């Protein structure tokens, strides 16, 4: 157990808080070791991870005092790179709540998440070249995928740090909320994921992470496994039987809800279908 990575079991997910506020949660070897231990747990338990930082910062980078002492063999060992790759490859979603500084290695940890939510004080970017090193823990290949080549190049080559509004506009975070609301949103998302089929969620994540040349083979083979699953049969049967029951009870009401003047009711509108899917989900 590490004192600088606080882990809370929230049932549907684990909340891990980087807790080294006096150093702006700079990621040192102890934190890297604790993150590896957390990954080992989540590789077995297969639950969503919410990552956050204590004291108004997510993480202000790798620990510069330790970085200064590292030499070529340490670079080749990829101390942070391997750790963030492992987080990226976790079987279930990773949601990062980015409050305040997410710089250098802290930003790269954020880029390894599947979903990022910012707060109004967010400052995110990679000042590594100013320290005489490169951002070698994922930024050069993940940031372009997230924000596109042009902005990623500008950020990595000039060290430009984005504020919350720019990060939102660039799609680097999916929402900007006050810290408590950001954590509440992450919790809500983790709870939502927990209501879905974990096998389908994990297959979706594997497909999302697969390199371009593996598509569409990977989707088809993942789907082939899911098409044979008991859970798919159960969920689809459940949906169809509930629909059957409600249409049996309220035929006139359904007909009018799904049909606009001049339309046939052979297929529901996609908005209606979506809202029904949401409702179905919430009922589970
Ligand atoms: N590594 C090690 N220590 C760090 C750190 C890092 N990446 N970021 C902050 N700290 C430490 C500071 O050294 C300071 O420690 P001290 O109190 O023992 O002197 C403490 O955290 C607070 O930092 P301070 O600079 O006083 O806070 P601030 O609120 O004025 O500024 C930052 C915050 C993030 C702007 C500033 O600390 C900073 O520029 N950090 C480095 C960012 C960086 O280059 N990251 C990339 C590393 S790969």
From TrEMBL:
Compositional bias segments (type: Low complexity): 266-276
Pfam families attached to this UniProt entry: ECH_1
Region (Disordered): 240-284
GO biological process entries: fatty acid beta-oxidation
Lineage, uppermost ranks: Bacteria, Bacillati, Actinomycetota, Actinomycetes, Micrococcales
Species, as recorded: Agrococcus carbonis
Domain of life assignment: Bacteria
Alphabetized InterPro entries for the sequence: ClpP/crotonase-like_dom_sf, Enoyl-CoA_hydra/iso
GO molecular function: catalytic activity
UniProt cross-references to CDD domains, sorted A to Z: crotonase-like
Name of the molecule in the record: Enoyl-CoA hydratase/carnithine racemase
């Amino acid at each position: 157990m590490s004192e600088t990575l606080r882990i809370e079991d929230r049932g549907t997910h684990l909340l891990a808080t980087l807790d080294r506020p006096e150093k702006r949660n700079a990621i040192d070897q102890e934190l890297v070791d604790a993150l590896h231990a957390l990954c080992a747990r989540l590789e077995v338990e297969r639950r969503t991870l919410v990552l956050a930082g204590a004291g108004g910062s997510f993480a202000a980078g790798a620990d510069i005092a330790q970085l200064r002492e590292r030499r070529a063999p340490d670079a080749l060992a990829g101390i942070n790179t391997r750790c963030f790759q492992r987080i990226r490859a976790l079987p279930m979603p990773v949601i990062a709540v980015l409050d305040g500084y997410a710089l250098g290695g802290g930003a790269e940890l954020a880029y390894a998440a599947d979903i990022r939510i910012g707060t109004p004080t967010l400052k995110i970017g990679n000042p590594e070249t100013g320290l005489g090193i490169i951002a070698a823990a994922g930024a050069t290949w993940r940031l372009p995928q997230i924000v596109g080549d042009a902005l990623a190049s500008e950020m990595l080559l000039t060290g430009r740090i984005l504020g919350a509004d720019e990060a939102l506009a660039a799609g680097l975070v999916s929402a900007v909320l006050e810290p408590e609301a950001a954590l509440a949103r992450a919790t809500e998302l983790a709870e939502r994921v927990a209501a879905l089929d974990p096998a389908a969620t994990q297959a979706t994540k594997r497909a999302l992470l697969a390199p371009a040349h593996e598509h569409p083979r990977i989707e088809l083979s993942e789907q082939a496994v899911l098409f044979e699953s008991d859970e798919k049969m159960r969920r689809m049967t459940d949906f169809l039987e509930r629909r059957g029951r409600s249409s049996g009870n309220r035929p006139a009401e359904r007909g009018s809800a799904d049909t606009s003047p001049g339309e046939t009711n052979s297929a529901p509108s996609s908005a209606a279908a979506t809202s029904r899917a949401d409702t179905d989900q919430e009922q589970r």
